Amino acid sequence: MLDRRRFVIWNVVLLVVLAFIIQQVVMKGWLSSFDQAAARLSRDLHASREIFTKTVIFGLRGTIISIFLPVMAWVSWRRRSWAPVAGLLLVLLFETGMTGSLKVAIGRTFPYDHYYYENVDVNVGEMAFPSGHAANVIALLGYVVWHFSRAWRRPARLIGWSCIGLAAIDVGVSSWLIQTHWPTDLFAGYAIGAIALLAIVALLNALGLNPSATAQRSPTTHL
Fold first, then answer.
1. 184 in Cβ contact with 190 (< 8 Å)
2. Distance CA 148, CA 6 (A)
3. Against a cut of 0.85, is the pTM above it?
4. How far apart are CA 95 and CA 101, in angstroms?
5. Secondary structure of the chain in HEC code, one letter for each residue
6. Rounded distance, CA 163 to CA 152, Å?
7. Spans of all domains in the chain
């Protein structure tokens, strides 16, 4: 559980991390060199695109929404509350807005556009940075797990969040191996997804719309 102080700390940390990654990408700092080295390694590994284009599916916005939007709509209908489905839509809008704005503002090339990776260009109109797939896993799947896990026992909650971690790793590794994203695209996507998730969870709690019917903690003091 996160109290208010920890919630603020986590958001500050995530924003600082995101700002640092953006600075490194725009100014072509040492993280940009790391991106180039990682892209060369992924090229040399010759990973199967047939396999990893399928494993990256956990980060597809359309796939997640097509599965979980009906689920959350059904939960909203059963509980006679708009909160479950509205929360998912708000997380979607928040993380998509942040991701899309940065994609347009930075305009970074994709790794598959390069071979020698001597330069990672920005302000060229492409939209590699940040990764929407990475943001989707943390924000959308994270919201679903948070929503249902509030009524679960601690071991079950740990399993749920571990699944989110594994899905995030799967999407990140798959995207790196098939060269659809630089590593910093993925790191920034994770940060944005976490920021969006925390923001919407805090909003629902502040409105007294904690989704767990069995939770005894005050929704205004815990996430």
1. no
2. 22
3. yes
4. 10
5. CCCHHHHHHHHHHHHHHHHHHHHHHHHCCHHHHHHHHHHHHHHHHCCCHHHHHHHHHHHCHHHHHHHHHHHHHHHHHHHCCCHHHHHHHHHHHHHHHHHHHHHHHHCCCCHHHCCCCCCCCCCCCCCCCCCHHHHHHHHHHHHHHHHHHCCCCHHHHHHHHHHHHHHHHHHHHHHHHCCCCCHHHHHHHHHHHHHHHHHHHHHHHHCCCCCCCCCCCCCCCCC
6. 15
7. 39-206
List the chain pLDDT tens, one digit each, 223 residues.
Answer: 556 777 888 899 999 999 999 999 999 889 988 999 998 898 888 888 888 888 888 888 889 999 999 999 998 898 888 888 999 999 999 999 999 999 999 999 898 877 666 667 787 778 899 999 999 999 999 999 998 887 778 888 889 899 999 999 999 999 999 999 999 999 999 999 999 999 998 888 877 776 553 344 434 434 4
Question: Is cis: bond before 130, omega within 30 of 0?
Answer: yes
Q: Tokens 């603020």 label which residue?
A: 8
Query: What's the chain's length in residues?
Result: 223
**Token pair in block for residue 181:** 């994203």
